[in-house]
Design brief:
alpha/beta, two-stranded antiparallel sheet
Length: 197
């Protein structure tokens, strides 16, 4: 059994959004086309409360893309994005949301960010996705979406660590590439046993 995991294809990560990834909308039609080839489709949705601790606006004197140390480790401070119930948090209008078997919302705990579809950024608190996939008998995952060097990367590495057979389709992802983060993510995924293709 194979699942397509579609990571954070939301308005705020697409051109014109609060944390836009270059050409983030260019991957939508290709993602939709893949949905017919799998047994299950899972969408993840960044879903932050206003004032989330990962927002630069929550830290006096800090600017977006600065790093701070949080109790769970280093944290990039982001522009306010994907706020619960906002248009920016909505999925891209052209994404075939009706094909989703499951939507996993992440980042809703105000005290901790959540890049991965499997764990919050403490690498311990689960989202529940692993249990869902295992009870469905799904062992093979294909990951696509935004952004390749953050949420896709963290999700793919966690999935590989959990023993899933993981493929990332870089052609159906787009990255932020902040200070070499894209090359580091690609190398880290390969090292974790993720297939890139």
């Amino acid at each position: 059994m194979q699942a397509l995991i579609v990571i954070d294809v939301q308005n705020d990560f697409c051109p014109g959004g609060a944390l836009a990834v270059a050409q983030g909308d260019a991957i939508v039609s290709g993602i939709n086309a893949l949905m017919d080839d799998v047994d299950a489709v899972v969408l993840t949705q960044d879903w932050h409360p206003a004032g989330h601790s990962s927002f630069a606006s929550s830290h006096a004197g800090k600017a977006p893309l600065e790093m701070i140390e949080m109790p769970y480790g280093p944290q990039v401070l982001w522009p306010d994005h994907c706020i619960q119930g906002s248009a920016g948090a909505d999925f891209h209008a052209d994404l075939h949301q009706d094909r989703a078997d499951l939507i996993i919302r992440k980042g809703y705990n105000p005290a901790i960010d959540s890049y991965s579809a499997f764990f919050e950024n403490d690498h311990q608190t689960p989202t529940g996705l692993e249990g869902y996939l295992r009870t469905r008998g799904i062992s093979k995952l294909t990951l696509v979406g935004l952004a390749l060097d953050f949420c896709v990367n963290y999700s793919a590495v966690d999935a590989a660590k959990l023993g899933f057979d993981v493929t990332v389709r870089p052609d159906l992802c787009r990255g932020i590439d902040m200070g070499g983060s894209l090359a580091a993510a690609m190398a880290g995924m390969k090292q974790a046993g993720v297939q890139l293709g």
